[in-house]
Design a protein that fits this description.
The chain is of the alpha/beta class. The chain has helices spanning about 45-55, 95-105, 130-140, 160-170, 190-200, 215-220, and strands spanning about 5, 10-15, 35-40, 60-65, 85, 115, 120, 145-150, 155, 160, 175-180, 185, 205-210. It comes from Buddleja alternifolia.
Length: about 220
């Protein structure tokens, strides 16, 4: 609303400053974000980097030592003004986690921690020792798929694109930590049968392990709930 101000007998009409753009109050409006991705050249990390770089407001910092990751996974972003790459040695397990939390505190205002379960998809290292990788490698080599006894132990699997979507939702939500997994489970025999259906060359699979061996239910279940 305009106001009249007296200035030596002269009335001067003044207007209040303009209101900020309504976009600033919109739910989808966000300021620029600076996001640190450890292991950003790895299997899951590189897919996360791809997704984050789609948003022109994001500045992404990738930290990786290429121990299991590859520069080829993020080659399309190298040299991009919104991506910084740091090749450094990252200690693993507890010490590595503490180091990365310390680094995140220095470059970010908020931290999100995700517990990731069995993930598969493009850029997966065929020799990474995961059960999906092992079955695919054996099928490609036309070898019997090896299933450890009893074969009824279950796993929950998540496609890498779904995993990245979950990580983005975690980052944008209010929770500071979350486990990410698919609710459906497969036995190892079911997984072997599925891989065999797609790999025509591999017509059989073998069940190995100590004769009569059985796993306790708590050890056989890998899907949290």
């Amino acid at each position: 609303m305009a106001k009249e101000v007296s200035n030596g007998g002269n009335n001067v009409t003044t207007k209040p400053p303009p209101e900020p753009s309504p976009l600033r109050r919109a739910k989808f409006f966000k300021a620029n974000m600076r996001i640190l991705v450890t292991g950003g050249a790895g299997f899951i990390g590189s897919h996360l980097v791809d997704k984050l770089m789609e948003n022109e407001k994001n500045e992404v910092i990738v930290v990786d030592n290429y121990f299991t990751g590859s520069k080829d996974n993020i080659r399309q972003w190298i040299g991009h003004p919104r991506l910084s790459l740091s090749v450094t040695t990252i200690k693993t397990n507890v010490i590595g986690t503490l180091n990365m939390l310390g680094l995140a505190k220095r470059v970010a205002q908020e931290i999100r921690i995700a517990r990731i379960f069995n993930t598969y998809g493009p850029r997966m290292n065929i020799d990474d020792g995961r059960v999906v990788s092992n079955f695919l490698a054996q099928a490609i080599r036309d070898e019997p798929l090896t299933v450890q006894l009893p074969g009824t132990q279950t796993r929950s699997f998540c496609y890498v694109a779904d995993m990245v979507d979950g990580l983005i939702r975690l980052m944008e939500g209010d929770n500071t930590g979350q486990s990410t997994w698919q609710s459906s489970e497969f036995t190892m025999l079911e997984l072997a049968e599925t891989v065999k259906e797609f790999a025509v060359e591999s017509e059989s699979f073998s069940v190995t392990g100590p004769k009569g061996a059985a796993l306790m239910d708590t050890d056989a279940m890998q899907c949290p709930g």
